[in-house]
Amino acid sequence: MKLSIIIAAYNVDLYIKKCIETCFIEELSSQYEIIVVNDGSVDRTKEIIQNMRAISNLKIINKENQGLGAARNTGIQKASGKYIWMLDGDDFIETCQLKFLLNEIDISNLDVYGMNYNITDQHGVAFNTAYPLDKNTEIFEATIYYQKFKGNSYTWQYIFKRSIFLDNKLLFLPSINMQDSEILPKIIYYSKSVKYLNVIGYNYVQHSESLTNAKDFSKRYKYFESIIIVNQSLQKFGYEIMKTNSKLAEVIIDKRLSLHQIVFNHVVYFPYTKENLKSILKLLRENKFYPFIFSPPRKLRFVKFGLNNFPYLTKFIADQLRNLKT
After folding, report:
1. How confident is the model over 170-210, as pLDDT tens digits?
2. Is 250:235 a contact under the CB 8 Å cutoff?
3. What is the pLDDT of residue 208?
4. Is 216 helix (H, G, I), strand (E, B) or coil?
5. How large is the greatest C-alpha to C-alpha distance in the chain, in angstroms?
6. DSSP-assigned letter for residue 153
């Protein structure tokens, strides 16, 4: 079998039907499989998936909730395809590109294939595209590719040779956010080449329940914890490969520095109570993410100075100014 499309699904009853439907083409179904891993959903996700059992190449795995990473690991272990494509259950693919993608992996037989993607609203209407539409199709040495495109490291924008995971015992961390940033450098290390395909194959859906839009403080706090775990993992891996791939190790240092920008932006642009901000800054300080070291654009330099020296007053003023603009 050429390809296993692995869909991790947790409480996505509003989106999962569309996600699965866009993955199915009857006349091509013998070439690939659709594996949906229901990660202990407590909404109608399981019921909706079960009602789609008539899809000929659909496989359903129900498991207790252990997080996105564990769901992906299960899917990889149960897959039969030579290649795997890991989707999130609240997104969807461009069905019209599936035939092209199946043909491409059959002909080229490379380690990794990257693709363009749309960013859409919750109704599936695209409002942005990740890369320029005139970007050329190229084959990169894997480390060079990561060096150029490390800013975009979403797992779902790639099709991977499954043996990369099996042969090197690569696993997603079970219950953190930003898993893509943590595992992609490891996949790159064990890959020889990446081919960029100038097609829009994926649709990344932004909605109010998305982690990056979450207002629940416990979710936001976990997000900061996850960044810290990712940083620690990348630091350890970068040190381990310094002698065997120093170039990739250097790129990982740059990737880790970008995490400081993410942390700074999430502190600046999301509202927090004084007590919640105090908890976040304590966590960041304990893990060397605070005081902030990121060099922001000129208009935010005073904000950085203020947050490093008068954090609660500065955050209060910044939130008030942002409220006035909205």
Report:
1. 999 988 888 999 999 999 999 999 999 989 999 999 986 65
2. no
3. 66
4. coil
5. 63
6. -
**β-pairing, 112-120 with 126-129?**
antiparallel
| Token pair of 263 as six digits | 């942390």
Mean pLDDT to the nearest integer, 251-269: 96
CB 266 within 8 A of CB 280: no
Q: How confident is the model at residue 322 (pLDDT cuts 50, 70, 90)?
A: confident
Distance CA 72, CA 155 (A): 10
Tokens of 95: 């069905």
Residue 132, pLDDT above cutoff 70 = yes
- HEC assignment per residue over 295-325: CCCHHHHHHHHHHHHCHHHHHHHHHHHHHHH
Rounded-to-integer distance, Cα 135 and Cα 188, Å: 21
Strand partners, 141: 193
CA 296, CA 203: separation in Å to the nearest integer? 30
Report the amino acid identity of residue 178: M
- State the average pLDDT over residues 134-162: 89
Closest by Cα among 11, 52, 13, 12 to 35: 52
CA atoms within 13 A on the CB side of 133: 4
Comparing CA positions, the residue from 50, 33, 38, 48 lying closest to residue 9 is 38
pLDDT for 213 beyond 60: no
Helices 68-78, 179-189: inter-axial angle, 10-degree rounding? 40
